[in-house]
Specification:
The protein is of the alpha/beta class and 243 residues long. The chain is built from eight helices and ten strands. The protein starts with a helix and ends with a strand.
């Protein structure tokens, strides 16, 4: 019992979630999101891509189908097992999956693009310092001139809309419940917590670690675009930063 209680919520949530994750409604915009990603790197197939918090590899695999070399990292073995099966079924030799805690990622100047999309790792940590560590590692992994594409829950949305969970306007932390599965496929409810960020916070954090240009674009599931301005109605912030 003690071992179970010591698990972080994001570990417990995803430890048996690999077979179910791709059925979630927020996973249905992958092709449109990859369209945006491709455009951001000028459709250059020589670009090497890192997906932090890749889950079941939906963005990695779609990019792999389009001819890009991609490495996906995630903390969850269950999610990576599903990602590897999907990749093997499609015979994608240009996509690799590695189990890794994003806080311990140790890549230096290896990638042209780093992704952290759909709350892949950032914003789920227990402290702001841990979130900052993930951003630092993303920056270190990028070559000079490389790009970082991040989506993260918006504090502005939480301040202007009613949430299902509880939102603390002092800490900008949201508490909520999610359904997960045990090892037998039975549903269970998990108490979760995430950090919501403002535009100015993200801008400050990214510039602190060396990003020269930070842009905020309009977020819409499956339709990331430079044609839309950020809005208080955007559930997440869409950030494109250049090192």
């Amino acid at each position: 019992m003690e071992g179970r209680l010591s698990k972080k919520w994001y570990v417990e949530l995803f430890e048996n979630f690999g077979e179910y994750y791709d059925n979630e409604p927020y996973t249905k915009g992958t092709k449109g999101e990859v369209d945006f990603i491709e455009k951001e790197i000028g459709y250059d197939k020589s670009k090497r891509i890192l997906d932090v918090g890749c889950g079941t590899g939906r963005h990695c695999i779609e990019l792999g189908r389009r001819g890009y070399n991609v490495v996906g990292v995630d903390l969850s073995k269950s999610m990576l097992d599903k990602a590897r099966r999907k990749s093997t079924e499609e015979n994608l030799h240009n996509v690799e999956f590695i189990q890794c805690d994003a806080r311990k990622l140790n890549c230096i100047d290896q990638f042209d693009l780093v992704l952290s999309i759909c709350e892949g790792a950032f914003s789920l940590m227990e402290t702001d310092e841990m979130d900052f560590q993930i951003l630092e590692n993303a920056s270190k992994a990028l070559k000079k001139g490389g790009k970082f594409i991040l989506t993260t829950p918006s504090a502005v949305y939480a301040l202007t809309h009613k949430l299902e969970g509880e939102f603390d306007i002092v800490t900008f932390r949201e508490e909520f419940k999610l359904e997960a599965f045990d090892g037998s496929g039975n549903k269970k409810t998990i108490d979760c917590e995430s950090r919501r960020y403002t535009y100015t916070e993200i801008d400050y954090l990214l510039r602190q670690i060396g990003f020269k240009r930070v842009e905020f674009l309009g977020f819409k599931l499956g339709a990331f675009s430079r044609e839309r301005e950020p809005s208080k109605d955007d559930y997440e912030l869409l950030v494109v930063a250049e090192k």
